[in-house]
Amino acid sequence: MIAHIVAILGFHKIGEPPPGSWESWFYIPERVFVEQLNYLKTHGWPVIDLAAFLRGVDDPDSLPERAVLLTFDDAYRSLVHVALPRLIQLRYPAVVFVPTEFIGRLNAFDADEEPEEAICGWEDLRELERDHISVQSHGVSHRPLSQLTCAEQEQELVRSKAVLERGLNKPVDVFAYPYGDAGLGRDWREKRKALRGALQRAGYRAAFLYGGRPQHLPARDRFRLARVAMGPDTDLEAELLR
């Protein structure tokens, strides 16, 4: 049986922080971002779109032996202005996860930890869709699921999906946990089962974590898919070989 590996790379901000602000680990300079994309191209890691990835979750043999899915959290506008031209240049598709309460606003959800940044508005999101960047759910409020009751978790899943589907006139199939927090803790088996049920009832086909290595398919749990967190100092070659 052929092993299929998909490296799901998770980015946040591409480019420089706003003038007068500071630089956190989540900012990847454009030059470094280009180097990372070129590494994939020159070392034989094909970049697939979300539709191909989801087919691969159901049928791993539909994928090449190794591939990459590019994902971006929070939908900062730098994705449109800095990253998108580079993705278009290489004809690379991607996925962006947006917290719906902050569409067209600022990143108040992490204002104490990160510089103030603009989040994409509806026209930005539509532009991304036209350029093969699939807009998907990052919840409503960007709160860690571990801080929420089961009912609140379900509301985050259902409301965000409905808002995006209505605003973009397209299906929303996948979810990325804010902060990579899947809301577990005590009684984690029961909580994992409850969250999986909520995701399925809402109509999601997969969900993404952080803190992982390239994802082997078939996946043990399609609602706990591993992503590689990408920063300016990430050794991409080493991460891909884990």
Provide a descriptive summary of the structure in words.
The protein has 242 residues and is an alpha/beta fold. The protein has one domain (4-240): Glycoside hydrolase/deacetylase (TIM Barrel, Alpha-Beta Barrel). The chain is built from 7 helices and 10 strands.
List descriptors.
242 residues, 10 strands, 34% helix, 7 helices, globular, TIM Barrel, 6-stranded mixed sheet, alpha/beta
Assembly of the depicted chains: single chain
Percent of residues in helices comes to 25-40%
Number of domains: 1
- Can you identify the CATH class? Alpha Beta
CATH architecture: Alpha-Beta Barrel
Question: Briefly, what is this?
Answer:
The chain has one domain (4-240): Glycoside hydrolase/deacetylase (TIM Barrel), CATH 3.20.20.
Outline the secondary-structure elements.
Layout lengths: L3 E8 L1 E2 L12 E2 L1 H13 L7 H9 L7 E8 L4 H13 L3 E5 L23 H9 L2 E5 L12 H19 L5 E3 L11 H15 L3 E3 L6 E3 L10 E2 L6 H5 L2
Parallel strand pairs: 1-4, 1-10, 2-3, 4-5, 5-6, 7-8
Antiparallel strand pairs: 1-9
Helix pairs in contact: 1-3, 5-6
